[in-house]
Design brief:
Blueprint (H helix, E strand, L loop, with lengths): L5 E4 L2 E5 L6 E9 L4 E8 L5 E4 L2 E4 L4 E8 L14 E9 L21 E11 L9 H9 L7 E2 L7 E2 L1 H77 L1
Parallel strand pairs: 2-9
Antiparallel strand pairs: 1-3, 3-7, 4-6, 4-8, 5-7, 8-9, 10-11
Helix pairs in contact: 1-2
Length: 240
């Protein structure tokens, strides 16, 4: 795959299969050219897998790590064999293209446009005893492992794609995870503060309402007492 615009690692997607549990696999795309390259990932079983991101743009000599999630399954496949396939499409795009608005025709094959395609198989394996159990564990697990070997991106550019780049990508993923967890905790704290503030407001409003009702009652009682006194005085005056 050295002559292609995009190099893909690994060459097949491996998932540790467990019933009723999600499984994760990292897919790394490396732009092996001096051009901006758009990518798109398809699968023959879109309901079983969640790919993030499934489209995007890779800058020259840059790379992107894609997280592929196997949704929880309720039954084992026959003989633990999987027939699912993934298709990675890549095409050269202008430098000013918006990664979130890639035209659909970008990946259409015609006489002028070059679209590279790479098919990937899916393999199910038995779960590792101390392997990752959740998405957070998966990111930590892969960031602590040096699984990748060194590859030459291009003979002219002398850019190598090896374990150091893989570990950097994992560190970046770990930082994103930590930032997301921190934002989640901050949102929870703000929600708790909002709930407490609402309870305090309700208690203050209830107290004010009770005081107002009491004052109105006292005022009404005073007015009734005053009216009775006036009537009694008038009646006494009439009798005299």
């Amino acid at each position: 795959m050295g002559s292609q615009m995009v190099s893909i690692f690994p060459e097949e997607l491996s998932f540790a299969f467990e019933l009723d549990k999600q499984s994760y696999c990292n897919l790394k795309l490396v732009n092996s050219s001096e051009h901006y390259v758009a990518f798109k990932i398809k699968t023959t079983a879109p309901k079983k897998y969640f790919v993030r991101p499934n489209t995007g743009v890779i800058q020259p000599w840059d790379s992107v790590v894609i997280l592929v999630t196997l949704q929880a399954q309720r039954e084992y496949p026959p003989d633990m064999q999987c027939k699912d396939k993934f298709l990675v499409q890549s095409a050269r795009v202008p430098p000013n293209i918006d990664p979130d608005e890639i035209p659909p025709e970008t990946f259409n094959k015609d006489g002028e446009r070059k679209v590279e395609e790479c098919k990937l198989k899916v393999v199910y394996t038995a779960p590792v005893a101390n392997g990752p159990r959740s998405l957070e564990d998966h990111l930590l697990f892969h960031s602590s492992m040096s699984r990748s070997s060194r590859h030459t991106v291009d003979s002219n550019s002398m850019h190598s794609v090896g374990s150091s780049e893989e570990s950097q990508a994992m560190v970046h993923l770990r930082e994103e995870r930590d930032a997301a967890l921190q934002r989640h905790r901050k949102l929870q704290q703000e929600l708790e503060m909002l709930k407490k503030s609402q309870l305090q407001r309700r208690a203050s409003f209830s107290l004010k309402l009770i005081i107002m009702v009491g004052l109105v009652g006292i005022l009404i009682g005073y007015l009734l007492s005053l009216a009775c006194s006036i009537r009694s005085s008038e009646k006494t005056h009439d009798e005299l």
